[in-house]
Amino acid sequence: MLKPLIWSLASVTVLGREHLDGLSGPYVVVSNHASHLDAPLIIGALPHRLSRYVAAGAAADYFFDVTWRKGLTALFFNAFPVDRTGLRGKRGLATTLLDSGVPLLLFPEGTRSRTGEIGDFKPGAAALCKSRDVPCLPVAIVGANEAMPYGKSWPERGRPPVYVTFGAPLRAADDERLDVDLLVGSMTDLPYADGEFDYVLAYNAIYHGDPDVVRATVRQIHRVLRPGGLYQVTMLSRRNAEFGRGIRIADGTYVQPEATDDKVHPHFYCDAAGLLAMHRPAELLAADDREHSAPGSFHWHCLFELPPGRDAG
Q1: Domain range for residue 240?
Q2: Domain check: are 269 and 124 in the same one?
Q3: pLDDT value of residue 87
Q4: Cis before residue 281, ω within 30 degrees of 0?
């Protein structure tokens, strides 16, 4: 819908169309992001058979914060909200769309570049392709930042040149893997150097303790992450059926001495406010309070980012 307008405002050159010949079914387009022109440029550059049903991921806190902008974003870009800031419960929407055969357009940097330089890519798009076994279509956009820089609401005059280049679709190899070194240590004293990791996964682990233990563990995660690093974590929700059972030993913390499983050890439960407070200064990118396999087994499933240039201590 926007292609005639964008093509009239910029001189667009599309390269790499030959890489699209064999592409079909659901896929994930990933691209650098430096301008509000990027999404319409990519959708307009794709052939109609591939662009017709593409859904573009758009920041919920910007494009879906007011009704008029939400409506225009959904109308022109077939957009779905990507929550960058809080507890909005957009559980599994990207995977649901892919499972329904809908291709996605995602910007792994997570935000527009202020300068036109490419920022660090977040791992979500790659993980999505791997988990749903769909191809990743890489796209490079050159000139969009100059054509419509950050902070501008309209392209520059004179039809500035913009280049959209499609790469060959990529898939993870069947034997693609990461080599892992295993170290054993206390979660409150992780045996790693400061800033050693881009990503940390803490699954069903750090809530085994009282608030002081949990807080100390979170500080350790922040310490071993580089600025801008991500970590995924599960925390026990106060909606969990086990909350309040047994002996209360600290705020939100219970033990069940007669239990035959790990509940003989302290378990810490938190609500949304407690979750945010426990993980400061990290920024919550996504959270979902949902059941695990058993009824009533509510856990927080969260993705946090350690802000660049902030002291994690």
Answers
A1: 197-305
A2: no
A3: 34
A4: yes
